[in-house]
Write a structure and sequence with these properties.
Layout: E1 3-10, H1 15-35, E2 42-47, E3 51-57, E4 66-74, H2 79-89, E5 98-102, E6 106-115, H3 120-133, E7 159-167, E8 174-175, E9 179-180, E10 183-186, E11 188-190, E12 199-201, H4 205-214, H5 221-238, E13 242-243, H6 247-254, E14 261-266, H7 276-287, E15 290-293, E16 300-308, H8 317-341, E17 357-359, E18 363-364, H9 365-383, H10 387-396, H11 404-408, H12 415-423, H13 428-436, H14 451-470, H15 484-496, H16 503-514, H17 518-527, H18 531-539, H19 544-555, H20 563-593, H21 598-605, H22 613-627, H23 630-653, H24 663-669, H25 672-682, H26 687-696, H27 700-708, H28 711-720, H29 728-746
Parallel strand pairs: 7-10
Antiparallel strand pairs: 1-3, 1-7, 2-3, 4-6, 5-6, 7-8, 9-10, 11-12, 13-15, 14-16, 15-16, 17-18
Helix pairs in contact: 1-3, 5-6, 7-8, 9-10, 9-14, 9-16, 10-13, 10-14, 12-13, 13-14, 14-15, 14-16, 14-20, 15-20, 16-17, 16-20, 17-20, 19-20, 20-21, 21-22, 22-27, 23-28, 23-29, 25-28, 25-29, 26-27, 26-29
Length: about 750
């Protein structure tokens, strides 16, 4: 079958845009074809620094013929109805319609509309100009005289030519003719800008790609990457060195060249006294070059690899020399920054943070550091860290933001702080925390293990979340400008590494710290035991501040807290609940990505007071293992039977049977199976109390074992006992017994949320 070759040849396509642009081109063209009924066998797009290309194989020569029957008015209808039918069906006269009969509706007109399939070149000529003119470049420009005209073509850089051919393998393809702002399509392209700049006439993709390669253009980005990586490793090996691989840099460099030639340069060994990360960042950022290391020691070598877009007549000496001069100058700058920064201690830089605004509503970086330090000290005992070291690390964590090195290379923040802290004799954990408090930055980034780092990392992320919640700047839909979802995931991953955090208390107190409200902090201390009750009263609709004052005065007669602080503390409590819901949503997403069952996550989250992320996960895991056993499956079935009976009877009776069953009635009137179930629930070793105690001691496996003891009594109860007894008192008591089964399972999870 025929295939399509399309090339859009321009002055330049930035490397960072190429891969996305190639995929956009493929999607836009193939979607437009499929929408018009033109199916194909395969499509692949390509990009180089100067061209986007698309090859679509297996397109039909023309579209399918269409035959449509359109029902019209009845015979004898008014002339206006007849004329409307003729116009809509495209008929010249009513004689061109046929007449059909219906036993109920009589005779009516039918128009038979036959449309021959359109030729593929015609369809391509129709859709491609619009795709080119409306191409979704992140940034684009207009140029030349036409740029003065409204609606003129915008492209990433000036578009020079368009190749578009279509035809079968056995024949010469035809040029699909169309025009975009004066640029007509054809079958002529150009090779490498310097090595083969002459025009090349092409037919189809099978000769297009080889012709370009002869003209020193490799159109496949992945093949250019392979060529660069292979040559770089070979050159390094020849020198007894090892390439420091960098996938991001490799992708970028492959987008800068059409014919990659890898060359080696060097720099003065004295520069190796600079931290290796600085050398690598300097050479990478300024010259897009790879660094090398000694495989025996793991230390950087004073050599680098560059990728040229030329086969130089002098073997690349001039190109290498030019790069060496630039690298030398940039490393000299880095060396100056490195030595200059060491002359000022980190704590002496904190004053400069007062002039850096973190957010207009959240104050300066200095004020943020004060909050983080206080929170890190509070969190340290919870995670097992030294509070003084955590506070010290948090206070110095942002100081490197005002160093010369980080000012030049912001991506080195944290890392440079660690170097400077080590040089000035800080504790190893303090130095580590300065670097690691940003971690984890994403789902694949490592989680810090040093406990001081954990405390400061948690404090940094919690302060960010609480701060933006306090000013009502929350993520909405796909928009998350302050990376709050990433911060929440960071807290989750830190907690799941083995740290128990009661997030509600931590977050609520930090809201007051964000507001710098000492009176509110005092209010929180008083409100903590009565906050839940305050929420309930507020929901009933009466005045919030009056209720809060009444509650606190009832419990703390000596309180002198101002009403405004109480009111703010309560609103922050509500904001805490909202932020906890955000954490819950993030945790659900994280666990689902890890393969956990969504229904088990929902079943655990449905219980109130779930704010210890580590305990939630352990409970979900234990619940999953329990439900995989026969005891678990049968207890779930028994729970559902009990819940269904209760739902029906409670609806019928208009009341809930949530009281504790009368065990005297069980003893006097109950059947043996009923008595056994009551003992299993309420006996000395009963499941209700056993599961509760196990949960309190965070023994989730023990809680599941306690519930498993209900399996046989529940099965026997439903086999032998009639719940809806004739005696009303006995019936009510048996319904309360069923409710006890439901309540026993709720110590672990809400079984109503479990599927299967």
């Amino acid at each position: 079958m025929p295939d399509l070759l399309l090339e859009l040849f321009s002055e330049e396509i930035p490397a960072r845009m190429q891969r996305r642009a190639a995929e956009d081109l493929k999607k836009l063209v193939t979607d437009a074809l499929v929408e018009r009924g033109f199916l194909y066998e395969g499509a692949k797009a390509f990009a180089t620094p100067r061209r986007l290309a698309l090859h679509i194989a297996g397109l039909p020569v023309k579209g399918q013929d269409v035959r449509e029957e359109r029902k019209g008015p009845r015979v004898g209808s008014p002339e206006a109805a007849i004329q409307g039918f003729l116009k809509g069906a495209g008929l010249a006269s009513i004689d061109q319609a046929k007449i059909e009969s219906d036993p109920k509706k009589g005779e009516f007109y039918v128009a038979v509309i036959e449309k021959p399939g359109r030729s593929t070149p015609d369809v391509l000529a129709e859709i491609l100009p619009n795709i080119v003119k409306n191409f979704p470049w992140p940034k684009s420009m207009r140029w030349g005289a036409a740029s003065r005209e409204p609606g003129s073509l915008r492209w990433v850089r000036p578009l020079h030519s368009i190749v578009c051919t279509f035809g079968p393998e056995t024949e010469d393809p035809e040029v699909v003719r169309f025009d975009v702002d004066g640029i007509g399509s054809g079958d002529v392209t150009k090779g490498h800008r310097f090595l083969a700049p002459d025009e090349i006439r092409v037919k189809r993709f099978d000769d297009y790609a080889p012709a370009l390669e002869r003209a020193k253009v490799v159109i496949d980005t992945d093949r250019r990457k392979d060529m660069i990586l292979h040559d770089a490793k070979d050159l390094a090996f020849a020198q007894g060195l090892e390439l420091v691989e960098d996938e991001g840099l490799l992708e970028e460099v492959a987008g800068l060249v059409e014919w990659p030639v890898v060359l080696m340069g060097s720099f003065d060994e004295a520069f190796l006294d600079i931290p290796p990360e600085v050398i690598r960042t300097t050479i990478r950022a300024n010259q897009k070059c790879f660094v090398l290391r000694d495989p025996a020691t793991g230390k950087l070598a004073n050599k680098f690899l560059l990728t040229s877009n030329l086969i130089a007549s002098d073997g690349g000496k001039t190109i290498v020399g030019g790069n060496e001069r630039v690298v030398r100058a940039r490393l000299s700058d880095a060396n100056f920054f490195w030595k200059t920064d060491q002359q000022v201690k980190l704590e002496d830089r904190l004053e400069k943070l007062k002039s850096i605004v973190f957010h207009e509503k959240l104050g300066t970086q200095y004020e943020r550091v004060e909050r983080i330090a206080a929170l890190a000290k509070e969190l340290a005992p919870i995670v097992g860290a030294d509070p003084e070291l955590a506070e010290r690390a948090a206070r110095l964590a942002k100081a490197d933001l005002v160093t010369e090195m980080v000012g030049e290379f912001p991506e080195l923040q944290g890392l440079m702080g660690r170097y400077y802290a080590t040089l000035q004799g800080e504790h190893a954990s303090v130095a580590a925390a300065i670097e690691e408090h940003y971690k984890p930055l994403g789902p694949s980034d490592r989680v810090p293990t040093d406990l001081v780092s954990v405390a400061v990392a948690l404090a940094d992320k919690i302060d960010t979340l609480v701060g933006f919640w306090a000013i009502d700047e929350k993520p909405t839909g796909s928009k998350d400008p302050y990376a709050l979802r990433r911060a929440a995931l960071g807290v989750i991953r830190l907690a799941l590494a083995g740290h128990n955090l009661k997030l509600s208390d931590i977050i609520w107190r930090h809201f007051a710290r964000v507001r710098e409200d000492a009176a509110q902090m005092q209010a929180i201390a008083h409100l903590a035991p009565v906050a839940e009750r305050a929420v309930q009263l507020s929901a009933q609709g009466s005045d919030l501040a009056v209720k809060l004052l009444a509650i606190v005065r009832e419990h703390h007669q000596d309180s002198l807290i101002e009403a405004t602080s109480l009111e703010q503390a309560f609103y922050d409590y509500q904001a805490t609940s909202d932020l906890l819901s955000f954490f819950a949503d993030r945790l659900k997403v994280y666990l689902r990505d890890q393969g956990a069952r969504h229904d088990l996550i929902d079943a655990v989250f449905a219980l109130e007071g779930q704010d210890d992320l580590l305990m939630i996960v352990r409970r979900v895991e234990a619940l999953g293992r329990f439900l995989d056993t026969e005891d678990g499956k049968n207890l779930l079935a028994g729970y559902r039977r009990a819940a269904n009976i209760l739902r029906i009877e409670e609806k019928k009776d208009g009341r809930a049977y949530n009281e504790v069953p009368d065990l005297q009635i069980v003893n006097d009137q109950g059947q043996i199976e009923e008595k056994i179930l009551a003992v299993a629930l309420y006996g000395e070793d009963g499941s209700r109390e056993g599961a509760r105690k196990a949960i309190d001691s965070e023994d989730f496996e023990g809680a599941m074992r306690a519930l498993s003891r209900l399996r046989q009594p529940v099965d026997a109860f439903f086999d032998k006992v009639t719940v809806n007894a004739e005696d009303p008192a006995l019936r009510a008591n048996r319904l309360r017994l069923l409710n006890s089964i439901r309540e026993a399972t709720r110590t672990v999870a809400d079984f109503s949320r479990i599927e299967g």
